[in-house]
Amino acid sequence: MSSLLKSIFDRNPGESEFHQAVEEVYETVEKVIKKNPQYQKAKIFERMTEPERLISFRVTWVDDKGDVQVNKGYRVQMNSAIGPYKGGLRFHPSVNPSILKFLAFEQIFKNALTGLPMGGGKGGSDFNPKGKSDGEVMRFCQAFMSELSKHIGHRLDVPAGDIGVGGREIGYMFGAYKKMQNEFTGVLTGKGQGWGGSLIRPEATGYGLVYFAQNMLAEQNDSLNGKTCLVSGSGNVAQFAMKKLLILGAKPVTASDSSGYIYDEDGISSEKLDFIMELKNEKRGRISEYADKFKSAKFFANDTKSDHNPMWAIKADCAFPCATQNEINIKDAKNLIAGGVKLLAEGANMPTMSDAIVELLKAGVNYAPGKASNAGGVATSGLEMVQNYSGIYWTREEVDTRLREIMKGIHDSCLQASKEYGMDGNYQAGANIAGFVKVANAMVAQGII
Ligand code: NDP
Question: Residue 183, Cβ neighbours under 10 Å: how many?
Fold first, then answer.
């Protein structure tokens, strides 16, 4: 390991997810740093891996029984070289500084790739919305915002949703912010229609992911039409990825949640997808209920003792991991290759472990890293900010056209950067390099701050 990486790891002990994300980027940008003495002199990589600010706070709220609950709240303001901090809020019991720092670090490059002026940030809480009443979620969101509101602003830091934070939570947090600050600004994105939200924002990450895959296949004169696809997750990203896959003639056959996965050999049709959307978004049910309803499907519960996820061993052409980090290990990667998968595009952030990525690339799988292929969500959040600033709102078609263009732009800049540095066709290297160079140049220009 290089002494630079070692010093970063030593400064952030025990933060395994953060180390993983930093190492993955460093391995591909090391060449660029070595070629550019100004980056070394200004210690750009060392500065990029240290948050500009990390806010940690207590969130106290009262549950339905009248008991006081205490949670941890965070905001990581990672890098503001090219614009206000931007990145989602995650509510999940696993949330800790390591996970948020890895996500905020990834966000720097992702946001740069979109071509929009957004810095990198991420935040959240170890609060678990699962099983909580609407009233409890609202009181938690209000308590969380009572502190977060002191650190964000529409020209300073604009959070959005992520795991466990959807339209409902954004609504409660926006309401709380507006009441406390006494002003109506676009301080959060992912807002609802009619109160500052952009059309296509809910769809954007999943749609953008599939547009990205479409561009990758077009490079090889191929298309998604008729392709069998493995999708993990059943939340926002997975739902709209499946929707767009269906529109483009592909056949999604799996979906999952934290309890297990369903396999529907006949394909998840749009009627079946409607069932998933209602189940997950309104009833807040479990994916196993899909197999109770549709006899063509089977549910497989998670086996925590297994060293692999059998879902990734199902025969298919493409894979779209859309649940969470580190859901594909090396064994899963080998199974994907053996099952015939030729393209893997990440909807989630860092769903593929580092050694699994190496395995996929070695086998010639067309691999797209999340920081490029899932950037459609934050890009459309950027478009929501533009609409909020101007007060003029675009039609579905206008936003969708811009999203398509942005995804094509990201795709092309990944390929171009990979070519420039002798790693032609490697989207992983291309995404890291293109994002890094843009932010590094801005940091050099702004001096030692
Ligand atoms: P949702 O909360 O809407 O859905 C998350 C899905 O993943 C659910 O099906 C959930 O199952 C499953 N999941 C979550 N944690 C785990 C776990 N530890 N093990 C197994 N399954 C799990 O989140 P999103 O769809 O918004 O986010 C999914 C991924 O996409 C995340 O990595 C996120 O960072 C990334 N992403 C999201 C963007 C967005 O715009 N929303 C933008 C870019 C990236 P269960 O219901 O059981 O918890």
Answer: 10
